[in-house]
């Protein structure tokens, strides 16, 4: 068929746009001819023509022709874009129903083929058609779906076409002109049109079914915003995205800088000079990618853009919030830095050291924005040497290694080094812009900033020694400056520039901000106010003048503003170990650390943390292998995370939706907690991205035209009404910030030794059960007598503090308890009996049974002699098998009975050891043992007497009486929560002291050497004034400085005569099942393996330490009450010294990146409620560097609250654990405590030794060297870090040189200086190995 001319086409087009919309047979022939032209059927289609033919087929499936017209002019007119449909993006469809268009069935059916919406310029269109007639087009535009789209259609922002599917349904195809096309000829700034386009984008269905007209009512829509198509449950969580981030894949081709490329090559090929340790492949990849992000951060696609495919297969990008549609994406420069979030124990410190060492000679670079004018203009031509040196300095060209190599051959380059030093690279930092205009502006000159090769490393104070150890272990040749002492000033900027690493403790780093504030004008006292002065009685002009003079003198005496030397250097990078704390700082609330970071000039910023936020950690950690009774696989040996098996196990409620109504409510509650925790995690990540990393577009200021709100664009809709973030945006942001390997990729490179975790269920001794029953009695008696209401009920909100203390004591009782006085128990029993006899209030039968059971339990405690002895002396009782005379047994026995075995307290056992060891030079070491026992028991008795005779109560003030009145009332039933006190020693004997929320380290370091002239009276001490828990409790006298036996070096031990009764004296049992078990296990393994024992209560550590002293096993106690410096010293000592075999560690201190890989045996004295905390504690030993299988045992007392904890924590989600500040916050645990059970106790009398927990193997008391005495250095056997100042011999010799000595004239570059924490002025610093 012959082609029609232009006039004929125009006539057809005008007719199609007429009012009646009638179409003749000629019109049909016209389009059939078009179809025949597009689809020639008289010949076979060659393969090479198939794409063109396919495009022509697609053309006939639309009213538009997509072949772009030839450009005949260099200045296209605006209509060229509107008429060229190939410029538009075929995006999606709007579903239309006839009932919403007020259109007749006949008119509706007439559009059974594609008809384009006519644009005013289409009268010049010589290729597209057919078009809707004007009436139909108006009716479609009047529909609710398209009523806002008339403006953007007429403006040429969109083109549309319509086709009906049946008599009720149809669809409008939408083609959008990209914002990056035709901006010079089509205006795109109209806000009303932008809003209309945004509305249209939200209604589009981009599915192929709707585009092809094959949709039904039940066909789900596919929105541009994919989050609208997913249920909340189906949207991937932050936890899932974090654990499925792609593993690092560094690319050398992307790094154009020659020196950085070479350093990256050396990292990947294990060719780093000075690195002594062979790195694993995954470590090399992480370090290389860190360098790649520093040298070539590259461009990242704006995370707000959604990457989509149009209906012709092309890519396009959409920002729904700004209604921007683009063919080419917006990009930003990625942040030079990020978060190294490798799983704990995988060698993040080594990765950082490799990065520093590989780029040791590479200097920081002048920022592009400050590079103008850096090329010097000389008055006269400089020498070639000076110009070359200046160029090297300005460009940051590495030169140190090359000069060292040449000088090694005997050459002298002194002049070159001097020239390079003089020509060091620098630039000028312009002053900040004034916030407001001023008539007399203060002119601030530009500040000179020097380039340097140094890296700043900031670590928690207790990790300073560990970093120094790692530096010495893995590297050689690094020049390190350690700044840990708050009183030592920084060297000059010139000196700082010569170091490779500036190692700061976090406190010392923050000190720079404090110093600047303290010397700033804002911190100065305010000037005297003339009006205020005039109002004072007796004020005169002379007094006002004098006040002004005094003020000026005060100001003149103040030091000038502090200028930190750090501000004069441009550092290569900043590395913050455990830097997740930066997530707590925001743009409106900045911490001191952030203040310091903001005034630094940095090329790269890194945070090193396996857990960037509380809820973000490896999935292998979340599942907690302790859920099983035994496990022999490493936590990394799990299924591929892509299968989501780990995530399903970590969050079972997210995948299990077939639940009963009750379960569904619980699931919704857990889900709400999950979203709340996720919101917190996202907020913290946002703070890191904006405040620390300065990542764009999130760090853009409000004045920036492209400011992006993290809460709006990244926070998911489930996190708040204003949050519209999408998964793609969140994923892109995480990928641009975080470097982390998936567990399966790590396993390709490394196989950690096996990890065997076992839960050991122990049957409690009778004394354990009596202790637990005492608590059950108190809870039950209180519940019944208070009728479970009013403020005297344990579980009343006003009794929350008492209930928390009760639960803490109850958990301690699973190990050992001595905190109830006999009088407490007796009063409770009597009041319960009286309550039953009087029957003043009705008692339910079940409550009467419970109360009778409580009375029976209390009477059993009162009738038990060992229990009464424990209540009296607060000692850990031990049965000692011996052949000693009866009078000696009676003198040392807690119950004054000359039985064999003899009941002796652990303190007395150790006193006897020290006494006998001091008598070994005698022919009969037993000489004087009788008298020593009597004195020991007398001291113990005097201590309890002091406790039972408190001083008179002080007269209460009015405010004190008011405070008492507002406090919690006395508990019903005369019950007590118990007294969680550790025995503490003073010179006069054993004195009990009230507990403190943060007990002193002296509570733990209880065993101290005897002083001359007192062979028996070993003393306990407290480094701080006592804090009484109850009104009228006695306060011990101020203690003296102790001498710890824990630090004592082993001395030669004189053997006992085998015929002596002392030689066979043995410990056969203790009152604590757990302590007996630990003594057996530690003795079994301590020769071949080092042992970690995790505890929660200081009292527990105290009793274990006592037992270890009795066994002669040297140990350290890592308590939270010690200074950070001392704790760091103990980590180094434990890892490097063979003397100390056991480390007792507070489990709350186990999540700070500590390396305890020298230990291969781990014991948890009680189960940890949070599996994540437990897993982090296990990782102290099971990590890179561990060469032995690691055995972990968690001790659980049967029938106690610990059994419930173990079972409950399996079913709790991570968010539920994070929500629980204590176990009382968990409803199930709360109910168990509320309805606590009684342990079964035999009705008949039980022989004393049978009430105790027997040791597997009796242990000799004497001849172990446990009591060896003599002069010694208190810090002997401790390993000191680099530069650590050992104590001077003599009095007060356990510390470094006193602060203030020489008044700050000590050298600034001290490798490690111990820092004393604040303590009361009257309290001497404790000397302990804890």
UniProtKB/TrEMBL annotation:
GO terms for biological process: DNA repair. It comes from Hyaloscypha variabilis (strain UAMH 11265 / GT02V1 / F). Residues 940-997, 1012-1047, 1286-1330 are annotated as: Disordered. It holds the Pfam family Helicase_C. InterPro entries: Helicase_ATP-bd, Helicase_C-like, P-loop_NTPase, SNF2/RAD54-like_C, SNF2_N, SNF2_RAD54_helicase_TF. Residues 952-962, 1286-1306 have a biased composition (Basic residues). Residues 1320-1330 have a biased composition (Low complexity). Residues 1074-1237 form the Helicase C-terminal domain. This is Helicase C-terminal domain-containing protein. Keywords: ATP-binding, Hydrolase, Nucleotide-binding. GO terms for cellular component: nucleus. PANTHER family: SNF2-RELATED DOMAIN-CONTAINING PROTEIN (PTHR45626:SF51), TRANSCRIPTION TERMINATION FACTOR 2-RELATED (PTHR45626). GO terms for molecular function: ATP binding; ATP-dependent activity, acting on DNA; hydrolase activity.
């Amino acid at each position: 068929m012959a082609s029609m001319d232009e006039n004929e086409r125009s006539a057809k087009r005008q007719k199609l746009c007429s009012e009646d919309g009638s179409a003749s047979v000629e019109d049909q022939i016209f389009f059939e001819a078009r179809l025949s032209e597009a689809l020639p059927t008289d010949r076979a289609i060659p393969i090479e023509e198939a794409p063109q033919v396919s495009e022509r087929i697609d053309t006939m499936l639309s009213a538009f022709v997509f072949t772009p017209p030839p450009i005949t002019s260099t200045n296209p007119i605006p209509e060229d874009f509107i008429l060229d449909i190939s410029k538009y993006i075929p995006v999606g469809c709007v579903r239309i129903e006839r009932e919403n268009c007020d259109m007749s069935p006949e008119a509706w059916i007439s559009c059974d083929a594609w008809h384009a919406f006519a644009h005013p310029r289409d009268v010049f269109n010589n290729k597209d058609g057919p078009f809707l007639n004007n009436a139909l087009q108006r009716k479609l535009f009047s529909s609710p779906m398209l009523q806002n789209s008339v403006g953007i259609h007429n403006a040429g922002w969109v083109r549309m076409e319509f086709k009906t599917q049946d008599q009720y349904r149809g669809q409008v195809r939408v083609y959008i002109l990209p914002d990056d096309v035709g901006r010079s000829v089509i205006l795109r700034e109209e806000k009303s049109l932008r809003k209309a386009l945004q509305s249209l984008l939200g209604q589009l269905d981009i599915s192929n079914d709707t585009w092809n007209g094959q949709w039904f009512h039940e066909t789900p829509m596919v929105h541009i915003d994919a989050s609208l198509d997913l249920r909340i449950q189906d949207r991937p969580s932050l936890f899932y995205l974090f654990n499925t981030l792609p593993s690092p894949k560094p690319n050398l081709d992307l790094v154009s800088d020659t020196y950085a490329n070479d350093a990256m090559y050396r990292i990947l090929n294990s060719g780093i000079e000075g690195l002594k340790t062979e790195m694993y492949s995954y470590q090399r990849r992480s370090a290389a990618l860190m360098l790649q992000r520093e040298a070539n951060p590259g461009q990242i696609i704006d995370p707000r853009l959604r990457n989509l495919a149009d209906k012709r297969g092309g890519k396009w990008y959409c920002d729904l919030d700004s209604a921007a549609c683009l063919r080419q994406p917006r990009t930003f420069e990625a942040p030079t830095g990020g978060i190294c979030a490798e799983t704990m124990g995988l060698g993040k410190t080594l990765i950082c050291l490799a990065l520093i060492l590989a780029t040791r000679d590479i200097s920081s670079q002048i920022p592009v924005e400050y590079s103008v004018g850096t090329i010097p203009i000389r008055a006269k031509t400089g020498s070639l040497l000076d110009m070359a040196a200046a160029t090297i300095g300005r460009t940051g060209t590495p030169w140190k290694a090359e000069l060292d190599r040449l000088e090694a051959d005997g050459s002298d380059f002194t002049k070159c080094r001097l020239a390079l030093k003089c020509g060091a690279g620098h630039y000028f930092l312009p002053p900040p812009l004034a916030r407001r205009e001023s008539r007399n502006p203060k002119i601030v000159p530009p500040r000179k900033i020097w380039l340097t090769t140094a890296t700043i490393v900031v670590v928690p104070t207790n990790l300073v020694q560990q970093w120094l150890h790692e530096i010495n272990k893995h590297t050689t040749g690094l020049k390190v400056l350690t700044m840990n002492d708050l009183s030592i000033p920084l060297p000059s900027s010139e000196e700082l520039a010569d170091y490779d690493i500036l190692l700061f403790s976090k406190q010392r780093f923050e000190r720079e901000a404090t110093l600047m504030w303290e010397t700033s004008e804002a911190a100065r006292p305010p000037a005297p106010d003339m009006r205020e002065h005039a109002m004072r009685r007796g004020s005169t002009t002379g007094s006002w003048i004098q006040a002004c003079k005094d003020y000026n003198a005060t100001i003149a005496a103040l030091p000038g503003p502090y200028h930190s030397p750090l501000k004069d250097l441009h550092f290569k990078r900043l590395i913050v170990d455990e830097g997740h704390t930066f997530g707590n700082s925001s743009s409106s609330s900045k911490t001191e650390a952030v203040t310091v970071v903001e005034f630094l000039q940095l090329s790269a910023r890194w945070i090193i943390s396996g857990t960037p936020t509380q809820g973000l950690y490896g999935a292998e950690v979340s599942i907690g292998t302790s859920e099983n009774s035994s496990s022999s696989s490493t936590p990394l040996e799990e299924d591929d995370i892509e299968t989501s098996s780990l995530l399903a196990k970590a969050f079972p409620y997210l995948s299990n939706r077939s639940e009963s109504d009750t379960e569904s409510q619980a699931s919704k509650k857990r889900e709400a907690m999950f979203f709340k925790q996720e919101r917190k995690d996202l907020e913290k990540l946002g703070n890191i991205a904006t405040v620390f990393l300065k990542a764009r577009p999130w760090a853009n200021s409000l004045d920036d035209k492209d400011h992006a709100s993290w809460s709006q664009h990244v926070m998911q809709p489930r996190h708040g009404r204003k949050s519209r973030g999408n998964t793609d945006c969140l994923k892109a942001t995480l990928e641009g910030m975080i470097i982390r390997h998936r567990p399966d990729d790590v396993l390709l490179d490394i196989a950690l030794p096996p990890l065997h975790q076992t839960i050991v269920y122990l049957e409690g001794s009778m004394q354990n059960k009596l202790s637990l029953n005492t608590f059950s009695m108190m809870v039950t008696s209180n519940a019944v007598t208070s009728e479970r209401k009013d403020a005297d009920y344990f579980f009343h909100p006003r009794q929350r503090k008492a209930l928390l203390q009760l639960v803490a004591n109850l958990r301690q009782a699973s190990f050992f308890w001595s905190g109830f006085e006999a009088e407490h128990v007796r009063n409770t029993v009597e009041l319960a009996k009286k309550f039953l006899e009087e029957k003043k209030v009705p008692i339910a039968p079940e409550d009467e049974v419970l109360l009778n059971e409580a009375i029976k339990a209390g009477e059993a405690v009162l009738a038990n002699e060992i229990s009464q002895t424990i209540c009296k002396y607060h000692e850990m009782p031990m049965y000692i098998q011996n052949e000693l005379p009866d009078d000696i047994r009676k003198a040392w026995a807690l119950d004054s009975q000359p039985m064999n075995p003899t009941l002796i307290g652990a303190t007395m056992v150790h006193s006897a050891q020290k006494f006998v060891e001091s008598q070994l030079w005698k022919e009969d070491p037993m000489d004087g043992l009788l008298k020593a026992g009597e004195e020991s028991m007398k001291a113990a008795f005097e201590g309890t007497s002091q406790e039972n005779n408190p001083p008179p109560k002080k007269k209460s003030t009015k405010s004190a009486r008011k405070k008492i009145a507002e406090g919690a009332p006395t508990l019903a039933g005369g019950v007590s929560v118990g007294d969680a006190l550790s025995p503490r020693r003073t010179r006069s004997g054993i004195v009990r002291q009230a507990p403190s929320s943060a007990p002193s380290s002296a509570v733990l370091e209880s065993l101290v050497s005897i002083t001359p002239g007192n062979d028996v009276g070993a003393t306990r001490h407290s480094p701080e004034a006592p804090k009484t828990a109850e009104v009228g409790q006695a306060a011990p006298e101020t203690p003296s400085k102790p001498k710890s036996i824990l630090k004592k070096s082993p001395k030669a031990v004189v053997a006992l005569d085998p015929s002596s009764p002392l030689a066979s004296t043995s410990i056969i049992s203790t009152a604590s099942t757990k302590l007996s078990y630990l003594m057996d296990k530690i003795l079994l393994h301590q020769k071949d393996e080092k042992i970690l024992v995790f505890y929660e209560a200081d009292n527990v550590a105290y009793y274990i330490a006592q037992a270890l002293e009795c066994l002669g096993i040297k140990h350290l106690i890592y308590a939270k009450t010690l200074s950070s410096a001392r704790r760091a010293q103990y980590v180094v000592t434990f890892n490097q010294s063979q003397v100390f075999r056991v480390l007792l560690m507070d489990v709350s201190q186990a999540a700070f990146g500590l390396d305890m890989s020298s230990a291969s045996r781990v014991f948890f004295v009680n189960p940890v409620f949070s599996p994540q905390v437990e897993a982090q504690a296990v990782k102290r030993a099971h990590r890179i560097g561990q060469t032995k299988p690691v055995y972990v045992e968690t001790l659980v007392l049967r029938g106690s609250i610990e059994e419930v904890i173990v079972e409950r924590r399996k079913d709790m989600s991570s968010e539920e654990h994070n929500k629980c500040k204590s176990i009382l916050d968990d409803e199930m645990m709360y109910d168990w405590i509320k309805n606590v059970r009684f342990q079964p106790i035999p009705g008949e009398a039980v022989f004393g030794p049978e009430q105790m927990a027997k040791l597997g193997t009796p242990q000799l008391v004497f001849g172990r060297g446990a009591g060896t005495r003599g002069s010694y250095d208190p810090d002997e056997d401790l390993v000191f870090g680099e530069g650590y100042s050992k104590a001077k011999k003599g009095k007060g010799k356990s510390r470094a040189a006193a602060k203030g000595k020489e008044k700050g004239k000590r050298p600034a570059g001290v490798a490690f200086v111990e820092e004393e924490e604040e303590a009361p002025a009257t309290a001497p610093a404790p000397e302990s190995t804890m």
